[in-house]
Amino acid sequence: MYFHHQEAIKALVLLLFSGFIFMLHHTGEIIKFINPQYTALSQIASIIFLFLFFIQVPRMFITKEQAKDHDYCTILGCNHEIVGRQLSIKKIAILFIIILPLLTGFFLPYKDLGAEEAVKRGICYTPTSTHNDNSVTISSSNKTLQQMLNSQELILDERNFATYVDTIRSYPKQFHGKSISLEGFILVDEKVSHDHPLIGRFLVTHCVADAHVTGLLLESDQGTLRDVRDWVTVRGEISSVEKNGQILPIILVEDWTKIMQPEAPYIYP
């Protein structure tokens, strides 16, 4: 009976990938990596990894006859072709690349994206959706616009943050004087305006790799707001300002309070 170390390593990697994805779902941290719409797909991936692990286990053990005779080959392959072979540098390099996500996932602490990452990635100030592509988009945007205009105060939360910010950017003058309340982290984008901080949140369309920041500029008589790097709740009134030849909405801050970072800090449009 032969024991294939290389096949055992492959089986272990499959089991670890399955366990890692299961762990992320069990702790709820999976939503810090992907859009919740894809959680079912990631669960399926975990099951597939586990299924492949059970297929791989028999390949770890082989008799002397199976090691020499092609008649024992199955649709899963011939195990005898690697008997006696040593791990090459190329195989070790490939194996390291494969297990690198596991090493970082199990042993390195995860940090939520915040103000520092927002400045490095860049900030989107233009509307992320078009309002004139087709009749469906126009109807949806007009309905949202009317709902917002009819509201006495705009209260932005994780459900409407992206849609409301996008609509305000598309029609900044129509919201002039409208009261607004929202939560987010504070950052300063020196490329656009060093005088006005921005309150924003990360939008995760598919996964954190495509995350980008959206938010609104702030104007406050309290200069300390510019130096804040925490999460805050801001209440104020919407106005507009011209930056680089573009009219941008801005919140005239009336009141703000520091808060703890939410358990789900990202917005999933």
Please tell me about this protein's structure.
- The longest helix has 23 residues, at 5-27.
- By secondary structure, this protein is of the alpha+beta class.
- It contains seven helices and eight strands.
- The protein has a five-stranded mixed beta barrel with strand order 4-5-6-8-7. Strands 1-2 form a two-stranded antiparallel ribbon.
- Helix 1 (5-27) runs parallel beside helix 4.
- The protein has helices at residues 5-27, 39-56, 64-68, 89-107, 115-121, 135-150, 161-170; strands at 2-3, 61-62, 153-155, 179-187, 198-203, 212-219, 231-243, 246-259.
- It folds into two domains: 5-107, no CATH class; 115-267, Nucleic acid-binding proteins (OB fold (Dihydrolipoamide Acetyltransferase, E2P)).
- The protein is 36% helix and 21% strand.
- The chain crosses the membrane at residues 12-34, 40-58, 92-110.
- It comes from Evansella cellulosilytica (strain ATCC 21833 / DSM 2522 / FERM P-1141 / JCM 9156 / N-4) (Bacillus cellulosilyticus).
- This is TIGR03943 family protein.
- Residues 9-123, 139-269 form the DUF1980 domain.
- Keywords: Membrane, Transmembrane, Transmembrane helix.
Concise synopsis of the structure shown:
The chain has helices at residues 5-27, 39-56, 64-68, 89-107, 115-121, 135-150, 161-170, and strands at 2-3, 61-62, 153-155, 179-187, 198-203, 212-219, 231-243, 246-259.
